[in-house]
TrEMBL record:
Assembles around the rod to form the L-ring and probably protects the motor/basal body from shearing forces during rotation. Residues 1-24 form the signal peptide. The basal body constitutes a major portion of the flagellar organelle and consists of four rings (L,P,S, and M) mounted on a central rod. GO terms for cellular component: bacterial-type flagellum basal body, distal rod, P ring; outer membrane-bounded periplasmic space. Belongs to the FlgI family. It comes from Sphingomonas ginkgonis. Keywords: Bacterial flagellum, Cell projection, Cilium, Flagellum, Periplasm, Signal. GO terms for molecular function: structural molecule activity. GO terms for biological process: bacterial-type flagellum-dependent cell motility. It is found in: Bacterial flagellum basal body. The gene is flgI. This is Flagellar P-ring protein. The keyword Cell cycle does not apply.
Amino acid sequence: MTSISTRLALSAALTAALPGWAAAASPRIKDIVSVENVRANQLVGYGLVVGLAGTGDRLLNSPFTEESMQSMLERLGVNVRGSQMRIQNVAAVTLTASLPPFARAGSTIDVQVSALGDASSLQGGTLLAAPLKGLDGQVYAMAQGPVAVSGFKAQGAAAKVNRGVLTSARIADGAIVEREVAFSLASAGSLKLALRNPDFTTAQRVAGAIDRRFPGAARVLDPATVELRPAPGTSLIDTYSQVENVEVAVDQPARIIINEAAGTVVMSADVRISPVAIAQGGLTISVSEAPQVAQPAPLSGGETATVPRTAVQVDDGGGKSLAMVEGASLRELVTGLNALGVSPRDLITILQAVKSAGALQTDIEVQ
């Protein structure tokens, strides 16, 4: 497995080899901000998936499935109240979807289907027409269609194999929008651009980039918000459409993210470390068991016994010497850490120890 330090060194080498690479990677304004009130709305619903091959809900364990079937059949003119139902090709499901901003009536959206009862698989099923409601209780879309399951299950007499989740499915373009969310940008006097990663410097750079195109059109309200006003002679929509593709150099605080469970270390480009000497040695303890069987002499009347044999070996890594590590840039820092030849786990320990020593001028976030 390639170590984290090696991967970081590769990224630093790429930056050194291509001086304009970092500058060319500057994002556009539309990539780092979201427009206030221009957002998706969550929809939820309940329905029935039919046509399953005996993998549906058991009605004894899922009484709500039986009640839903009876109500659905009554709406279709079939009365089954009081009759005993013993079927396993129907499953009760919950439906979730995201209504994108400015979605118009008649457009389609994707639907996520999840089993609600004890159905073992939704493969091969079809969702009957079901409403999708918003938080206000209004119906915004109607969902229906065959479900698509990404997993599978196969088994024999003594073995079986599962891939994916059979009780979760998706219907691409499975819902038709019936109600629109009213919002008009044309009547708005200004737009508030919300930074996805709030930062004073980035907010000022966004406002400056807009003002260079349309003087006086942008104003910083706080580290997370830039107010955009229409430029003279243009509409608000025209103004934003002309500045959303402007590139802005995003500033970010120095930070190190550590995931101890996965052994992952991510450093931002502004990480700095004061001169410090580090010695890292690994400690490995190996314990092996080789029990031996002791046989008594013939006709001695003794019993066979097992004699334990244990071998313990300790390896302290050979006592690596001290190495100086200092970095005015990420490349220099990675080069110094690579000189130690550390593994990702050792790198995590070193960074935490250097932080405790006061030589690491950044925050460490442990996930």
